[in-house]
Specification:
Globin-like, 9 helices, about 200 residues, mainly alpha, two-stranded antiparallel ribbon, about 0% strand
Length: about 200
Amino acid sequence: MNLGRACEILGVNESTVRRWADSGEIRCFRTPGGHRRFAEGDLFAMTQGGNPGTRPEHEIETAAVSRIRRQLHGGKPDASWYHSIEEQERDELRPLGRRLLELVGDYLSRRGRRAQVEQEVDAIGKRYGQILHDRETPLLRAIEAFTFFRRSLDETAKQLAERTNLSAEEAARARAEIAGLADRVLLGVTSAYDR
């Protein structure tokens, strides 16, 4: 398998897979052109036993960040909104997105108090909206960004559910909880435009 497919299977970014390969945590061989190749069986065995350096409770965060990066920088048509946002604005939004993914992981794994997680998710949604509104980002662009994020998170949850053999009931519960948190973010974003 090539590096990109290894990232998809493991749910981490390319630099992480390269680091693991260079440190010997993942076996790989190099093509004559210098590209890394990985045995499919080794990759799937890692998903069963846990990724090096990644605690299982952070798996959804790691996988979602990786998926979002690939989509944003892969020229996907549904990420066109990203290029209309200035770099400074992206730098303000990025830590909020990372924290939001951590909170989703906390919520799904039942770490922390749910009411506190929900309050922080609400606050992040409002802050997203404030940043975008203050920079005069049209509401349509803000909603495009939100739907991109929500779809990426939903696809990541679906992939992880399949990979970890969650029951249909567990997978449905997780996706419903993610959707509920996403709705809270959307309400926070749009509330900033209601001012």
